[in-house]
Amino acid sequence: MVGNHWLRMSKLISVVNIGEALKIQTINPATEQIIGEYEAISEQQVNEEVSHSRMIYETIWKKFDISERAKLLRNLSSMLLHRKMEYATMITNEMGKPISESLKEIEKCSWVCNYYADNGKKFLERERIQTDAKDSYVQFDPLGVIGCIMPWNFPFWQVLRFCLPALLAGNTVVLKHSSVCIDAGNAIQQALEDIGFPKGVFRHITGNYLVGEALAKANVDAVSITGSTKAGIRVAEIASKNLHKFILELGGSDPFIVLKDADIEMAAKVGVSSRFLNNGQSCIAAKRFIVEQSVVEEFTKKYVENVQAQIIGDPLDSKTTIGPLVRDDSRNVIINQIERSALKGAKVLIGGDVPKRLGFYFNPTVLSNVTPDMAISKEEVFGPVAPILSAKDHVEAIKFANDTEFGLGASIWSENFARENNLAKDIEAGMVFVNSMVISDPRMPFGGIKNSGIGRELSNYGLKEFVNIKSVIIN
Questions:
Q1: Which of 106, 295, 338, 382 is the most buried (most CB within 10 A)?
Q2: Are 317 and 103 in contact (CB under 8 A)?
Q3: Which pTM does this prediction carry?
């Protein structure tokens, strides 16, 4: 679930060449202090890691009974809760989200462990099909080695929501995590090994985007990437040349539609949470607030009041609701988007600038008089910026909502009209939420259409993405 920055991975962190080795420095975005220095592996080393993963798959992991794998997931769930503060602090230090949100991320990871431990066996049971044969059924076998390229904005959740169902199905996994959160990638590998996963079932490799490309080229059976549309196209291009299956979870510009029969006060309150969660750096954040004209003034007033109540500060402080952005030049991208929109008439109601403090902070921002043709509407905005658009009626609101290259999620706020008229069917997105913000839930498939991606994660559907759906006919 990351914005439009994956292919610029080398800019997310400090990269320096020392001799012939590529050194990567991770930086705490709140203090601007170096956390650690790591060496990127070579393409040859990537291939060696994948070969080792295949050996472990063939000789050990695929022979495990699913009940044994499920037990390991339960063990992991317990460990995550036991070490919750340690892991949450690691997340906050590496990418800057408030500690309260990092703690919730680890709790959610524990939940997804138990969800697949409880339901995976049922999901993977043979499906009997009535045919003319003596016996016929569909069985679900692991594919083999799955390569995954994951982003920095949810360092534990993004990885575990993908890899746990893949591992439960009997696959092995090679992860190329973001260069921003190398400690998180290493910690996940160590956690899996500590609770009993055979060494090599899950491997974390370190590097920049070139290492990600090398992984997509390697002898894997499938590739999963969460990143930008541009990054997804690149990975799909590489994977396709080798006929590797790929799953793409890409960017979003989710509409937050407020109709005239909505609970305006609740919509404004939840809308702030949806937009500013993770410091505004989430693919499923509300990116465009599309409000019916008759209630736009009331909504805007209440929305601004809620934004003014946000607390910018040290992300390790439990009272903080907005921390720093992941990198310094993220602010330049946002300022450019605001300036180009202002030239077309957008009005900054609050924020729009950089606070005078250490760290990569950006003041929470609300813009009015926004139109669909502005940069703040057309492009994915990865930061704490909320544009408000006025629509004359629900028809225009739906039109504005679909006027985007993306199709990840959407939120509609309406007490009765949206449900009675099934407006969800008119929204071009993979997920539609009525009277709540867009979230990921292990029980529901997660993913988008258009330039937001291909395939699904989570639920039974996400598990089936990384299996061979095999038809067996017996006569």
A1: 382
A2: no
A3: 0.94
Whether residue 1 is contained in a domain is answered as no
Which residues contact residue 392 at a Cβ distance below 8 angstroms, ignoring those fewer than 6 apart?
292, 293
Residues 165 and 267 in one domain: no
According to the 3-state scheme, what is the secondary structure of 417-434? HHHHCCHHHHCCCCEEEE
Same domain, 390 and 404: yes
Q: Report the Cα–Cα distance between both ends of the chain, in Å, rounded.
A: 47
Beta bridge partners of 255: 288
Tokens 């291909």, located at residue: 454
Angstrom distance (rounded) from CA 287 to CA 3: 12
8 Å CB contact between 250 and 282: no
**Residue 309 is assigned to a structural domain of this protein:** yes
Residue 260 and residue 247 share a domain: no
Alpha-carbon dihedral sign for residues 182, 336, 450, 255: positive
H or E stretch at 467: strand 467-474
Q: Which domain holds residue 272?
A: 254-442
Which of 283, 380, 457, 465 is catalytic? The answer is: 283
Q: Which of 49, 94, 105, 249 is catalytic?
A: 249
> How far apart, in Å, are the Cα atoms of 224 and each of 10, 21, 27, 106, 271?
20, 27, 26, 21, 30
Q: Is residue 36 part of a domain?
A: no
226-279 tens-digit pLDDT: 999 999 999 999 999 999 999 999 999 999 999 999 999 999 999 999 999 999
Task: Judge contact between 213 and 237, C-beta under 8 A.
Answer: no
Distance CA 254, CA 290 (A): 10
Q: How far apart are the C-alpha atoms of 55 and 457, rounded to whole Å?
A: 26
Q: Which long-range contacts (CB under 8 A, 24 or more apart) does 190-194 make?
A: 191/76, 191/79, 191/80, 191/83, 192/72, 192/76, 194/79
Q: What digits encode the pLDDT tens for the residues 6-40?
A: 333 333 344 444 334 689 999 999 999 999 999 99
Q: Is 249 in the active site?
A: yes
Pair (64, 172) in one structural domain: yes
343 and 243 together in one domain: no
The alpha-helical segments, DSSP class H, found in 218-349 are 229-241, 264-276, 296-308, 330-342
